[in-house]
Design a protein that fits this description.
It is built from twelve helices and three strands; from the N terminus they run H-E-E-H-H-E-H-H-H-H-H-H-H-H-H. The protein is mainly alpha-helical. Strand 1 and strand 2 form a beta hairpin. InterPro entries: BTB/POZ_dom, SKP1/BTB/POZ_sf.
């Protein structure tokens, strides 16, 4: 679901909540936080016992740069594209920023952000797979909360595709840190089995075409849940009649 212009104007009339990262505070309107994020909607729900103190929410292990990008995305919904003549340093910075944003979205339940960032990462890495360095893969497996996250699947798939190239230098054992207990190898083998069994040897697509396959796109997408009824009302959106008065966690007042 997307906010209409009218709903957006209504949403920015709501109270501001201050997100804190690395000692810095960034204000974001409550309605926008709750609309895009299941996590923030839960924290900000009137009937939730877990309350933010004084309208502030601390975000441990989040950099101020990532928080600023998230706040900007919340209001502007930027188009994550990169010019073809961009310098390698700029592309490296963009890659790191996208990885950080995706993990932020996974950690704090911002599915729409994850999907937009994943599309950008696929576009970036499909033609420049070597941008994904060993340090990036290690960081992804260390920081991504879910064992089988879509971001981990993407990195495994890129390694599989690279390994199919003649005289490829890819050796999966170099990526399998002991701290992951063999998870990197397991995901790699799973992707490799799919790649070699499902895709015809004669028709194996190059990485850009591979990442555009519907089966791949579906596997890398995150389900975007509908906002809670109280969030929709805060944004001035009409709640469907069948759901009206049935918002999860809200008390029903009975007349005497």
């Amino acid at each position: 679901m997307q906010l209409t212009p009218e709903a957006y104007l209504q949403a920015i009339q709501s109270d501001r909540v201050y997100l804190i990262a690395q000692g810095h505070e960034i204000p974001v309107h409550k309605a926008l936080l709750a609309f895009y994020s299941e996590y923030f909607a839960l924290i900000l729900s009137q009937n939730n016992p877990v309350k933010s103190e004084d309208g502030k929410i601390s975000l441990p292990n989040v950099s101020i740069a990532t928080l600023k990008q998230y706040a900007y995305w919340t209001y502007q919904t930027p188009n994550f594209t990169f010019p073809g003549d961009a310098e390698i340093e700029q592309l490296q910075e963009s890659k790191t920023m996208l990885i950080d944003l995706w993990i932020f979205g996974e950690t704090y339940g911002v599915a729409r952000l994850q999907n937009e960032v994943m599309s950008a990462l696929c576009a970036l890495l499909s033609t420049r797979p070597l941008l994904l360095a060993k340090a990036d893969i290690t960081a992804i497996f260390r920081r991504s909360p879910s064992s089988y996250s879509q971001l981990r699947r993407l990195t495994s798939l890129i390694l599989v595709a690279q390994a199919q190239v003649k005289n490829s230098p890819v050796r999966i054992e170099e990526y399998d840190s002991p701290m992951f207990g063999g998870l990197t190898s397991m995901l790699y083998r799973s992707m490799h089995t799919w790649y070699t069994s499902v895709i015809s040897e004669k028709k194996k697509p190059k990485l850009p075409q591979l990442l555009q396959l519907q089966s791949i796109q579906s596997g890398l997408a995150v389900r975007e849940p509908e906002p809670e009824d109280w969030v929709l009302r805060l944004c001035g959106l009409v709640v469907p009649v069948a759901q009206a008065g049935m918002s999860k966690g809200e008390p029903i007042e009975l007349e005497d």
